Amino acid sequence: EVQLVESGGGLVQPGRSLRLSCAASGFTFDDYAMHWVRQAPGKGLEWVSGITWNGDSVGYADSVKGRFTISRDNAKKSLYLQMNSLRTDDTAFYYCSKDLGWGLAATMFEYWGQGILVTVSS
Amino acid sequence: QVVLTQSPSASASLGASVKLTCTLISGHINYAIAWHQQQPEKGPRFLMKVNNDGTHNKGDGIPDRFSGSSSGAERYLTISSLQSEDAADYYCQTWNTDVGGVFGGGTKLTVL
Fold first, then answer.
1. How far is CA B39 from CA A56, A82, A85, B86, in A?
2. A119 with A47: CB under 8 angstroms?
3. Helices within B1-111 (DSSP H only)
4. Cα separation, B39 vs B26, whole angstroms
5. In chain A, what residues touch B59 (CB-CB under 8 Å)?
6. For A27-51, what is each residue's pLDDT tens digit?
7. Could you give the 3-state DSSP secondary structure of residue B39?
8. Quick one: pLDDT at residue B104?
9. B2 CA: distance to closest CA in chain A (Å)
10. Given a cut of 90, is residue B73 above it in pLDDT?
């Protein structure tokens, strides 16, 4: 059974940093691209960032480019999102998601975690 | 830039069928899309991928009541024999090399 478990969320002040983690199990982690998708309370889904199976290529939404960094550790079967210079509009549930494929092309989000809440507020 | 358009809401009676629509913007009508279901207070769940030729590939454990189809720029999700647990938000999603992941605004389905 595929499982994706996010951790590291919480309340943080504007301008500060936070690092999210996602622990994966139930599939061959290093065969697939991985993503972060977020959802502000009461709003729709927004893709945040993605990374290829080996980490050689990454992509970011314009809204987080230059502030967020995605990474992965295949040995630990873990995905990360380093979030710097956080803003109040970054407040959202953050979901870890497994791609159908290994690259960042024709991506479909096949499995989702339960999400972790990040609240940016003073 | 790829845009996906969905009606904000839909409703149908228990036991009936409903067809949800996701429309691709002109110039991108050959894109495949995915349908995702999000029940209240839960994370999203992948339902299926729908190709531009109408073929679809369902996710693990998705009941036969859920099916996908396509016509031109439109991608459809049909749910038959509606059950109370089908009340949820439904999002279509695709990918564009320039902008990355793209989601429609979602359709809130009410089961009467």
1. 34, 28, 32, 8
2. no
3. none
4. 30
5. 110
6. 999 999 999 999 999 999 999 999 9
7. coil
8. 97
9. 13
10. yes
Q: In B, which residues are within 8 Å of A104 by CB distance?
A: 95, 100
Q: Which of B1-39 are b and which e, b meaning 16 or more Cβ less than 10 Å from the residue's Cβ?
A: ebebebeeebebeeeeebebbbbbeeebeebbbbbbbbe
Q: Which two tokens stand for residue A106?
A: 């024709």
> Which chain A residues contact residue B104 at CB under 8 A?
44
Contact B101 A50 (CB under 8 A): yes
Q: Is the pLDDT of residue B18 over 90?
A: yes
Model confidence over B49-68: pLDDT tens digits? 999 999 999 999 999 999 99
Determine the residue among B9, B31, B45, B46 to mutate to test chain A binding: the one whose Cβ has the most chain A Cβ atoms within 10 Å: B46
Amino acid at position B68, single letter:
G
The tokens for A70 are 């995605």
